[in-house]
Amino acid sequence: MTSLDQDISGIQQEKQVLRDNLRNRDFSTSQANKRAELLRGQADYKHARQIFVSPAPALQQVRVNCLLDGKDLVMPSAGLKEGFFLFKPYSIPFQDLPFAVTMKGAPRFAKKLRQADVEELQVDLLATDAVAVDSLGSRLGDGLGFFDLSYAVLKTLGALTEEAKTAICVGIDQRISATLPVTPWDVPADMIVTEKEVQRISKACGHRGEIFWEQLSGKKIKKMTPLWWLQQNKV
């Protein structure tokens, strides 16, 4: 094990301790909806034509809003196994929207994207949730790393605009004063959206889109269609 691997292992252990202490905080649907409306009022959201939103239940209203507001919605499949789905606005009956933008609804109501389709995307804004976020915009996720990996894949395939921003939607109590530990692939927030306010990070520090292949097993790569595309391109 290299010194870098040892450092990363230590950071991952530290993160898991924090997750265990913070993960069980519960927030109501009304709070999640307030965050969705605050994000909706931001210029980055209003000007965005294509928005990537994580499939977390707490972001359901964000996903619904995107389609109601005439924006293309990009959502990852479960575990990135099938890559990404694209929802087109005004193509889904209003009463079906809440179900359509879930993991179960996506295969029925959205288009599963091929590599060429992903390469044509121009995502302006990416929204996700977190277990916790600090004042520097560092995010503590669920430990699976799918948001950071989605960001890196989209970046590598040219699917993000140069000015693409990241919005982390969390409960007010999920903002912490301590500085969170970060790994090299962690994507920072450009804005933190709570049910009470939006904080913009003027100089978000963190990694911006490289895939750390040495940290990915061959088995993991084969399970995730977008990684398999990129791996084949590397050979």
Provide a descriptive summary of the structure in words.
The structure is a single chain. With 235 residues, this protein is an alpha/beta fold. The chain has a single domain (3-234), classed as Rossmann fold. Helices cover 37% and strands 19% of the residues. The protein is built from 10 helices and 11 strands. The strands form 2 sheets. It has an 8-stranded mixed β-sheet, sandwiched between helices. Helix 2 (29-40) packs parallel to helix 4 (60-68). The radius of gyration is 17 Å and the shape is globular. The two termini are 25 Å apart. 40% of the residues are buried.
Salient structural properties:
single chain, Rossmann fold, 235 residues, 10 helices, three-stranded mixed beta sheet, alpha/beta
